[in-house]
Amino acid sequence: MKFSWKIIGIIIGCLAVTSYIIAITVIFSGKSAKEICRGVNIVVTDSASANFVTSYEIRQLLKESGISMKGVIMDRLHLSQINRLLSNNSYINQVECYKTLDNKINIRVSQREPIAEVMGITNYYIDNKLNKLPVLRGKPAFVPIISGAVSDTFLQRDLFPFIQFIHQHTFWNAQIEQIYLPSDSIVQLVPRLGDCIINLGTIDRYEQKMNKLMALYQHALNQVGWNRYSYIDLQYTNRVICTKRNLEQQSK
Q: Which spans are transmembrane here (predicted)?
């Protein structure tokens, strides 16, 4: 049997590299466990679009909870405890906490985004997963307000898809200031521009109704003025009924 010294050399080289990696890993693990934490980096990944949670507030929360990291032996830091603490914050959506090779702790969090504010005995926001978020003093969210006869059942089962539709539409999200329920099944809108009430009637076929309203904006209100009508009724199929400020009705 003939042996290839080239193949033998390759095998020996691979074994040497593997042994080196294992040795370095063991040495580094032991060294890292005994070394102290050199610092904590906290990043709120979506801070440019929302400011409900800041890195300073996270540091304060950790401090108030008695969690100290800098100067502590790395092996004694329990990252699961930090994850649980931060995950309990209503406005924190996801938490990522890990140790770095230079003996630091990195904490990355993302925030929940309010898409509407529900007014009642206690006001609260809802996000795109229907989580309830407290209203924070000094940190307003510029989202549509939902008021009137708002029941949890109607909100979750019927109204929430419409709220998502408004939030995802650039124009409607900027234009709709309030969603008002005079009763548990009737929906009316208050726009930011134009002094009028927009009646959807029941929430069914809301996309078709909003398309009719968009057509009215584009082809009529741009010509006659956005304050010409005090009441715009979208509840009927294939027509929009508008009430002038002199109470004269006409169809568009």
A: 7-28
Evaluated on CA atoms 131, 134, 138, 142, the torsion sign reads: positive
Start and end residues for every CATH 3.10.20.310 domain found in the chain: 39-111
Token digits of residue 12: 């020996």
Rounded to two decimals, what is the model's pTM? Answer: 0.76
Token pair belonging to 242 = 């508008």
Cα–Cα distances (Å) from 207 to 22, 151, 162, 165, in that order, read: 61, 22, 8, 8
Sign of CA dihedral 155, 158, 159, 162: positive
Domain with CATH 3.40.50.11690 in the chain: 114-251
Backbone phi, then psi, for 52, in 5-degree steps?
A: -80, -20
- CB of 116 within 8 A of CB of 55? no
- Domain 39-111, what fold? Ubiquitin-like (UB roll) (3.10.20)
**Strands lying side by side in the sheet with 176-181:** 132-134, 124-127, 114-118, 145-148, 176-181, 187-191, 197-201, 229-233, 241-244, 249-251
CATH placement of domain 114-251: 3.40.50.11690
Q: What is the pLDDT of residues 191-249, one digit of tens each?
A: 998 889 999 999 999 999 999 999 998 888 877 777 888 999 999 988 899 888 765 44
Alpha carbon distance 33, 3 (integer Å): 45
**Residue 116's closest CA among 156, 87, 57?**
156
